[in-house]
Amino acid sequence: MTAPLHVLVVDDHRDVCEFVAFGLRSAGFDVETASNGREAIACQERHAADVVITDIFMPDMDGLEAIQCIKRLFPRTRIVAMSSRAGAHRPDYLWVARQIGADATLSKPFGTEDLLALVRKLDAAPPR
Amino acid sequence: MNAAAEIGRNALHIHGREIRIRLAVLVCISALPLVLCALLLVWSILAARDAAPVARGRMAAVCAALIMSVGVSLGVARTYAGRIEREFAEYVRSQQAEQELRQRAEAQKAAAESADRNKDFFLAMVSHELRAPLTAVIGWLEIGRANVGERATVARALEIALRNARQQARIMDDLLDVSRILSGQFALERRPVNLSRVAREALEAARPSAEERQVELVLCIQEPLFVEGDRGRLLQAIGNLLGNGIKFNQAGGRVELALERSKGRARVTVTDNGAGMDPGALPHIFERYWQGEAAEALRRRGLGLGLALVRHIVELHGGEVRAESAGRGKGARFSVELPLILQLDAIAEDLQPSPAVVEARLSGLSIVAVDRNEDTLGWLQYLLAMHGAMTWKAHSAEEALTLARREHADVLIADVADVDEGYSLVRALRAVPAERRIAAVAFSSRSGEDEYRGALAAGYDSFVAKPCAANVLLRAVCLAAEARGA
Question: Is residue B265 in some structural domain?
């Protein structure tokens, strides 16, 4: 038996953050939460997660900064960027997130099934 | 000035050759008379030697001819110079007009582009603002459905979904308000409003979000103030200012809501020790959709409509709103000033207390009445006693002050015909914090606008003109007492 996948969820919208965390916990993952990029980096430094799921627009340190930082400091951590703005206007921040190192993206709103399918797929694929 | 000089330079440059040729012609024409004069001089010297009469006649004829030609050539030169000047001025004018047109077109284009950008950005923000809560609504409803057997989970899911749906409803309300403002259909329902009560309510409404963000809320109301306006809209305006102070603050921060009287107006101040603003941003913060730097706006929630709505509401009430900040990270202070209702007995009928309410309100109150006229005092004492209040009669301000302190008065009814004495009496009461709870009613036979304003500015809660009906006085006393919480 391997240890459960450790996932860090980062979103300043508490209800969204908890919804993602709840879905992941029910599926048996080990979940931590943070409300901005700075907190996320602090969590990573304590215990690097296997997967970080982060919102893009957050106060203090936003998701794009956090993605770059995590990519540099924790190359083995896979990153999912989530945002509600995909395609709504230019630039498409989810596309930008992919360019700077996110492994996958989730466009809000999404359901628990999409979320779990994506995380399982990332888990199955070896880190880049 | 610079633009004109520039056009002049351009004109010379473009038309340089043509103008140079014309100037050369001009110089030639102007030089011609000089050459002719020189020739005339030489010829007259030569002619002077030969003094034959025939020669003299010839000399005179030639001189006349030369003088004429000098005159003609000077005339031609002047006309020619005038023409060049006119053409040049014409050219400069046309260039200026063209440049103005060009500048205007550019400005219009820039404004249109900026409006377009703002609109795009605003639409993107709206979509984001509506989708963020939608993510929570859908997500939590799904969780609820998947765990339908677990009561606690379902309850929590419904609670969160509801909260987020309500947030969306609030966003829609704001958008609707803005659209009403834009189409000129934003109207107020005007009635007398106790602003102190509205402030308390706004503070209570803001409490949950303040607690969530761990921001301390402080209320500082010195006295009750009445304004004429739309209760719901005033609540919304104060709520938006509080929400703003909470939103741009950090855990452990503080937002203070104060209400005070200032130069005959009611002033609501919301002070926070949060993010603050650059002084350069201050003129823009009440504009629609403005939310600080665009890049920063993306990180915050909200559409940047709150302050624009505040300004609109306040201005419809005949008031004004101001913002101050010492700079980034140094907090901000928003103040709203609204015209006070000058006369409590002008308050609408629905605020007129029924006899039972008057009785309940006045019963047991300790009232000091001051007037030089013993008959008036007697009437007051009788009237108030009928409604269960204890009245102490005073004949001078000094006596009234002593009685009010000794008897722990709840209400002061003072004749302010002698303005100096009447005003200093209430000022003396207001100067002592413990005595600020005393409701004060001014009573005067001089009842002009200045007297109303003066009495309220001095610290009276209401002004009643003499002579008055019993119910007018009772209502004024009731409202003043209620306002002071007596």
Answer: yes
